[in-house]
């Protein structure tokens, strides 16, 4: 199946159950975050706020700290200082499983499917934190198949047989099955053809605008990210060097030249 299916599969059939935020009450706030690896400080006092139901783009060159920021929010690494707040509830230092249960889902870079498992087996991983009845699990699975119709057609196929665009659909659908309030996306367009990349970006907009998800989008392609984002944050060497609405950042010639590469 071609990557063009991303566009056809992005059409939704209902809201993201339990994850939709439409009243502006929910938001993610990172305050003075310090994190790193061994002796290396990758984030040095980073403060970022993601408005509810909006798209916040986190931009910067390689090594700026973008991926580390998402990994710290999702509990994959422990912050050394600072706080991470979800709707004013402190989730700093919690395990990845606890972070998922709190309402934050993380889609790492690299289309992280498990190729030896089928599409449906990959999707079931997204419900590992569920404690509901089997009928509710089945309904949730069918909801994602309705949202991503190409996955429904290939539910019994191995994930290794999917195209790049379909794999990106799969990892996003898997994250949505955790019923998040906040979705962290790390380089969702990485390795995709320009046409497919545009389709993935359109999907991101749909999830925010139509289903009220708060999305934090890390992207190397700053132009594409700012085109769909409400707000942008630019990191450089682990520090915030700019934070403003997306249109303002896109219009800043000096900022684009020094930090964004376009």
Explained architecture:
The protein has 262 residues and is an alpha/beta fold. The chain has a single domain (5-260), classed as Rossmann fold (3-Layer(aba) Sandwich), CATH 3.40.50. The protein is 37% helix and 23% strand. The protein has helices at residues 5-9, 66-73, 96-102, 119-125, 134-147, 149-153, 164-176, 194-209, 222-228, 246-251, 253-260, and strands at residues 28-37, 40-50, 55-59, 81-86, 89-90, 104-107, 182-186, 214-218, 231-236, 239-245. The protein has a 6-stranded mixed beta sheet, with helices on both faces. Strand 4 (81-86) and strand 5 form a beta hairpin. Helix 4 (119-125) packs parallel to helix 7 (164-176). It is globular. The model is unreliable at 1-5, 7-15 and 17-25 (pLDDT under 50).
Q: Got a strand count?
A: 10
Order of helices and strands: HEEEHEEHEHHHHEHEHEEHH
Low-confidence stretches: 1-5, 7-15, 17-25
Query: In which order are the strands of the major sheet placed?
Result: 6-7-8-3-9-10
Task: Briefly note the structural class of the backbone.
Answer: alpha/beta
- Which CATH architecture? 3-Layer(aba) Sandwich
Radius of gyration: 18 Å
Largest sheet: 6 strands, mixed
Q: Specify the number of helices.
A: 11
Q: Span between N and C termini?
A: 33 Å
**Helical fraction:** 25-40%
> What would the average pLDDT be, to the nearest integer?
88
Q: What are the SSEs and their pairings?
A:
Layout: H1 5-9, E1 28-37, E2 40-50, E3 55-59, H2 66-73, E4 81-86, E5 89-90, H3 96-102, E6 104-107, H4 119-125, H5 134-147, H6 149-153, H7 164-176, E7 182-186, H8 194-209, E8 214-218, H9 222-228, E9 231-236, E10 239-245, H10 246-251, H11 253-260
Parallel strand pairs: 3-8, 3-9, 6-7, 7-8
Antiparallel strand pairs: 1-2, 1-4, 4-5, 9-10
Helix pairs in contact: 4-7
């Amino acid at each position: 199946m071609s990557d063009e299916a991303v566009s056809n599969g992005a059409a939704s059939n209902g809201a993201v159950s339990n994850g939709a935020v439409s009243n502006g009450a929910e938001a993610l706030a990172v305050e003075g975050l310090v994190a790193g690896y061994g002796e290396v400080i990758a984030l040095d006092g980073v403060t970022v706020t993601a408005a509810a139901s909006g798209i916040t783009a986190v931009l910067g060159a390689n090594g700026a700290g973008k991926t580390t920021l998402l990994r710290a929010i999702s509990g994959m690494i422990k912050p050394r200082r600072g706080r991470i707040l979800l709707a004013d509830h402190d989730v700093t230092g919690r395990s990845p499983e606890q972070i998922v249960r709190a309402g934050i889902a993380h889609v790492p870079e690299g289309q992280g499917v498990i190729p030896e498992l089928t599409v449906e087996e990959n999707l079931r991983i997204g419900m590992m934190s569920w404690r509901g009845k089997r009928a509710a699990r089945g309904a949730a699975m069918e909801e994602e198949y309705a949202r991503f119709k190409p996955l429904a057609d290939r539910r019994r196929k191995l994930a290794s047989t999917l195209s790049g665009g379909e794999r990106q659909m799969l990892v996003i659908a898997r994250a949505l099955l955790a019923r998040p309030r906040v979705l962290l996306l790390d380089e969702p367009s990485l390795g995709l053809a320009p046409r497919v990349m545009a389709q993935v970006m359109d999907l991101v907009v749909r999830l925010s605008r139509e289903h009220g998800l708060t999305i934090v989008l890390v992207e190397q392609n700053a132009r594409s990210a700012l085109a769909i984002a409400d707000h942008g944050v630019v990191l450089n060497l682990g520090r915030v060097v700019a934070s403003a609405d997306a249109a303002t950042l896109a219009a800043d010639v000096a900022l684009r030249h020094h930090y964004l590469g376009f």
